[in-house]
Every structure is written in structure tokens, then in C-alpha cells.
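Good morning,

Attaching, inline, the C-alpha cells for the sequence recovery test we're adding to the shared suite. The designed sequence is right after.
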């Protein structure tokens, strides 16, 4: 039993690392993230200052380390909390409600299909 739990935990850690690496690389491959942090029409000096401030001037593996560190410390959640407190609550609540209703609908549909299609339940 211990071996099974350790094996599953190892798979979970590996999956989370691969997921975080995939997200990090997809964000970097879609373009320069510092462009989103400056005003439209900003000068190259402003763009360079933002890159330096955010740490995008460092090597990619150092950036990934910073990304993982911010994940572990929950800094991304703290940034999201600032948006909630600033009055933009609907940006997180509405998508969350949509996801909740989709999951609820899928569960209800799955239960209905199981009752209708399972031969053992039809005999009851």
C-alpha cells in the first residue's frame, strides 16, 4: 500500500512539473510577455525597463525558477486577490460559475445515461 501511494505521489509531482513547464513555455512562445505590461506605443526604453523589472532579461531557466517560486509561495493568488478587491470580481466569479454548472451538467447527464443504459440498473 505504501509503495502504491508513493508511486502515485511521484506521478502527481511529475505531472505538475510537466504541466507548469508546458504553461511556462507556451506563454513564452506566444510572444514577449513584457509587451502586455506596457502601454500601447511605448518606447523601446520603456519596454526594456519593464523587462528588467519583471526579470525577463534573465536566462530562461532562471525565469522558470522564478515562476515555480512564485507558484510555491502563492504570489499568483495574491495578484488575483488584488483584482478582486479592486472591483473586478466578475472576472473570476462568472467563469467559475460557468465551470461549476458545466461540471454539474456533465455529472447529471452521466448519471442519467448510466441509469438508462446500464442493464443491471434497468432491471430494478
Amino acid at each position: 500500500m505504501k509503495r502504491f501511494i508513493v508511486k502515485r505521489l511521484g506521478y502527481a509531482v511529475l505531472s505538475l512539473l510537466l504541466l507548469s513547464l508546458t504553461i511556462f513555455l507556451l506563454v513564452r512562445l506566444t510572444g514577449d510577455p513584457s509587451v502586455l505590461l506596457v502601454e500601447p506605443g511605448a518606447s523601446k526604453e520603456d519596454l526594456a525597463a519593464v523587462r528588467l523589472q519583471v526579470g525577463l532579461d534573465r536566462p530562461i531557466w532562471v525565469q522558470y525558477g522564478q515562476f515555480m517560486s512564485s507558484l510555491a509561495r502563492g504570489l499568483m493568488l495574491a495578484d488575483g486577490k488584488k483584482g478582486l478587491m479592486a472591483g473586478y470580481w466578475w472576472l473570476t466569479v462568472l467563469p467559475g460559475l460557468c465551470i461549476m454548472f458545466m461540471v454539474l451538467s456533465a455529472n447529471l447527464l452521466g448519471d442519467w445515461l448510466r441509469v438508462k443504459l446500464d442493464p443491471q440498473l434497468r432491471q430494478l
